[in-house]
Structure formats: structure tokens, C-alpha cells
Amino acid sequence: DAGVTQSPTHLIKTRGQQVTLRCSPKSGHDTVSWYQQALGQGPQFIFQYYEEEERQRGNFPDRFSGHQFPNYSSELNVNALLLGDSALYLCASSLDRAQSLQYFGPGTRLTVL
Amino acid sequence: GESVGLHLPTLSVQEGDNSIINCAYSNSASDYFIWYKQESGKGPQFIIDIRSNMDKRQGQRVTVLLNKTVKHLSLQIAATQPGDSAVYFCAENRGAGSYQLTFGKGTKLSVIP
After folding, report:
1. Confidence of residue B27 (pLDDT cuts 50, 70, 90)
2. CA nearest A39 in B: which residue?
3. Residue environment code for A55-74, b if the CB has 16+ CB neighbours within 10 A, otherwise e
């Protein structure tokens, strides 16, 4: 049973560029959430996707956008990168029900120079 | 603002001893809590969860205690092993239709052989 997978593992970009990160959920899961984790901090919720729609959004600017595909996989896009966007980006998958346990992938380490 | 917080940022224990990691939360509407373990360079790994209608739950070598009166959560690890060394996060779901998890900064557990 495959867990949550993310690609790429590491990424280096320069300020102003755009980036796309990818996530495949755990088998059987239909909901994908994205989190940003700065060094030494806990993960911060960016948004959650269900049925190909953004269902809930955290306190992140609209430079952060996403997509969910019919096979439940998801992408996170960040435009106009800032130095402060350097972080570990985590994808978590879950089942669509209340109080649903979220399983995390290994993350993508993004460095913005 | 309201957030999940942790009493101790670091904890060192002798191998074989029991570990207790504490977490305070301030949102009385929170109804679901999860403990995650995060090793260096990896995504958070599920340890144990508890719903607000329970005050204790046990897993393999781990126990979570929930005290809703004082809004306090703890994770107890029995017979701590070197492989338990990691950062531990508690996360809360704030109920009322919220799908996101809110994390604290984490506690770093170091096991002394």
C-alpha cells in the first residue's frame, strides 16, 4: 500500500520565478492538504482540496494556488517566489469525513535564492 | 492568537526511561488531536490520535492523555529507545467544519544511550 508521495524531493529557484510541486495521495484517499513548514517551526496549513475544488484555505496569499486532478493527485503552484517562501512543503492525504486523520508525505524542500 | 503550544522545546531522556511530552491548546472548540513524530529530513509520521470525547488512548508503547478542563494534552512514551529521537508535534482540529490541522512548534526529544 503506497503512502503519500511527493515530487521533486528538492528544488532550487530564484526570486520571481514560479514553481509547481506534485503530490499523490495514499491509496484510497480522496482529500489532499498542503502545508508549509519553515525551519524549526510546525507545519502551517495552506489549503485543502476535495472533489477538485479548494475547500478551505489558510492565511496564505493568492500567489499560492493549487489543483486536484480526477485521480485525486494534486499540485501546488507558487508564483513570484520570495526568499521567505523557502521551506519544506508537505502534502497530506485523508478521507473526506469529519476529524479525518491526515497522513503526510516526505515533503519537497524548496530553496529560493 | 489561539494556537497549539508546547511547554518544553527540548527534552533529553535516558534510554529505557519513560518520556512525557506536553502540549497546551487554547481553543475549547477543538475536538480532535493528533501526535506526530518528525525525523530530520522527513515528513510528520502519525503516532496516535484522540477525540475530545475521550480522555485517554493507548497504542504500542505510547499513551495520549487529554484534559479538556485545563486544555492540556500529553504524549507518554514507555521505555524510550534511541529510535524515538525526533521532534514531536501535537496538532489540533478546531471542529466547527474546519478541515485544517493546527500545529505547535514541536518538542525535540533526545534519547541518551
Report:
1. confident
2. B105
3. beebeeeeebbbebeeebbb
Contact B43 A104 (CB under 8 A): yes
Q: For residue B95, what pLDDT band results from cuts at 50, 70 and 90?
A: confident
Name every chain A residue with its beta carbon within 8 A of the beta carbon of B36.
104
Q: How many CB pairs under 8 A join A and B?
A: 55
Helix (H) / strand (E) containing A104 = strand A103-104
Mark yes or no for CB contact A42/B31 under 8 Å. Answer: no
Copy the grid coordinates of residue A50.
476535495
- The chain B residue lying nearest A10, using CA atoms, is B41
List, in sequence order, every beta strand (DSSP E) within chain B: 10-14, 19-24, 32-38, 45-51, 56-58, 62-67, 72-77, 86-93, 102-103, 107-112
Torsion of CA A41, B86, B65, B19, to 10 degrees: -130
